[in-house]
Design brief:
alpha+beta; 2,3-Dihydroxybiphenyl 1,2-Dioxygenase, domain 1; 3 domains; two-stranded antiparallel sheet; 20 helices; 49% helix; globular; binds 2-oxoadipic acid; binds nickel (II) ion; iron
């Protein structure tokens, strides 16, 4: 029931992503510095590596590169998560994937809100890694009840944002004016607040339980805690960060450097302490650190088989390291990763033949000029050069990497070990719907591209 006067959700998402980036750049100047470094690096890579430039042009990723970023937030209650899901839906963002962070001692579970169709991703690949605090993991019943009562009192959406979400749902979309109002109002949910909602002592208590609990419970809303641009060469950015006054974490999360990048590589830097006023103080005499910076490099999405191989090699390298990667063992960790990942084919053809990665298929000029192709298989078309492939970019996140990013920004406080297991069902109940399986989305995109090729060629 799409109305001609309604703005497409993809465009609303594109506008929102830009507004978020502008807000964050103003709030956190280091983000601006990082964006410049990433832009410079991307220009350099595109100029010096025509192969990458060609590949990004043919997939259309070149046009979305400068728009590309993800953010992260953490919410405290089921109601907050469910309303967020509705807010993101106005922008065409669906919850994709389920990530359990408790094995890494972080008391949350998460999903990523993002567009799901390749055409929508092309307009704006903006994603938000969204975590729900697991209050049940606070051991002290009194503190747990206190945290719950503080969260129950807050309202993280503006009244106008709520009205607009409802209008979008009942009308089936938003008009131009409503869409701009929505962007402005939705942004308020993610804004930083210099004043806390608890006293300094209460903050200390929450923080002593887990720094993340204080970050979620003690504030008016789920401030965006980082916004991550996409770089084409994360090793260059990592190496240049110190010269720009930015200190990166010790190791890059994700797979090692390769000829054919896979999945996601990420690095981050710690945010500075920021001044905060607690409710029993009239000036900003306290401090809190939550906001940090991160960059990422994206590679090919892996099939279940590829992902299983990735997980096995990553675990093998980490097991052999016998410790969490840190400053002291970083060189050894990189060595072990390179060694173990030697087993992962590093050519597109190798990954395709072994069905380790997802691909997009394109008809070539030669293919368009050919005829009499009835009954010919996809493999025949590929070897005849009538069709060619590009890897599908990974649009999601990685739980082990996410845990590393969380931890590096929570400080090196003692590791907590939770005796609970992942609970996707409870997460989905809070969310008010099921999360989408990301692997199914890649398989569908790949299949659509194959079908388009076959249709185009068999007409010829
Ligand atoms: C989210 C950390 C995870 C990523 O890119 O994997 C993350 C958070 O700190 O809230 O951002
Ligand atoms: Ni992130």
């Amino acid at each position: 029931m799409s109305h001609p006067d309604f703005v497409s959700p993809d465009l609303i998402r594109q506008r929102f992503s830009k507004a978020m980036s502008d807000m964050y750049r103003e709030e956190v100047p280091l983000y601006g510095a990082l964006m410049e470094l990433v832009e410079q690096t991307n220009r350099h890579v595109l100029a010096s590596d025509p192969q990458i430039a060609r590949q990004l042009e043919s997939t259309g990723e070149i046009q979305r590169l400068d728009l590309e970023r993800h953010g992260a937030i953490r919410v405290g209650t089921a109601t907050e998560l469910a309303t967020l899901a509705r807010l993101f839906a106005v922008m065409g963002m669906q919850p994709v994937g389920y990530y359990d962070l408790t094995p890494a001692g972080v008391p949350v579970h998460s999903t990523a809100f993002r567009a799901v169709h390749e055409a929508a991703l092309q307009v704006s690949p903006f994603r938000v890694f969204t975590s729900l605090l697991r209050l049940e993991l606070i051991e002290d019943p009194e503190l747990r009840a206190f945290a719950q009562s503080v969260l129950d009192k807050r309202s993280i959406f503006t009244p106008t944002a709520r009205v607009l979400i409802e209008q979008a749902e009942t009308q089936g979309g938003l008009t131009e004016k409503q869409a701009w109002d929505f962007v402005e109002q939705a942004l308020e949910t993610f804004r930083w607040h210099h004043s806390a909602t608890v006293t300094a002592a209460q903050y200390q208590q929450l923080s002593a339980q887990h720094r993340l609990i204080a970050d979620v419970v003690a504030f008016k809303g789920p401030h965006i805690n980082h916004l991550t641009p996409r770089t084409l060469d994360i090793d260059i950015v990592q190496a240049q960060m110190p010269a720009h006054g930015i200190t990166p974490k010790a190791v890059i999360e994700g797979p090692p450097r390769r000829q054919c990048p896979i999945l996601l590589r990420q690095t981050s830097f710690k945010a500075l302490d920021e001044p905060i006023a607690f409710t029993d103080q009239d000036q900003t005499r306290g401090s809190h650190s939550a906001r940090f910076g991160e960059i990422e490099q994206r590679g090919a999405a892996l099939t279940p088989k590829g992902r299983a191989l990735y997980d096995r090699l990553l675990n093998a390298a980490r097991d052999e390291l016998k410790d969490f990667p840190n400053e002291a063992n970083a060189a050894r960790y990189n060595e072990l990763m390179a060694q173990h990942f030697g087993e992962f084919p590093d050519t597109l053809e190798g990954m395709r033949r072994q069905e380790l990665a997802y691909f997009r298929y394109f008809v070539t000029e030669k293919g368009l000029a050919a005829d009499g192709l009835d009954g010919v298989t996809l493999e025949d078309l590929l070897s005849a050069g009538y069709v060619r492939v590009e890897p599908l970019v990974y649009e999601d996140f990685l739980p082990v990497s996410a845990a590393g990013i969380f931890q590096s920004n929570l400080g090196d406080a003692a590791q907590t070990h939770y005796g609970v297991h992942s609970n996707q069902q409870a997460f989905e109940q809070a969310l008010g719907r099921k999360t989408i399986d990301e692997l199914g989305l890649y398989a569908e995109t790949q299949q659509r591209s194959i079908e388009e090729c076959l249709t185009a060629l068999k007409r010829g």
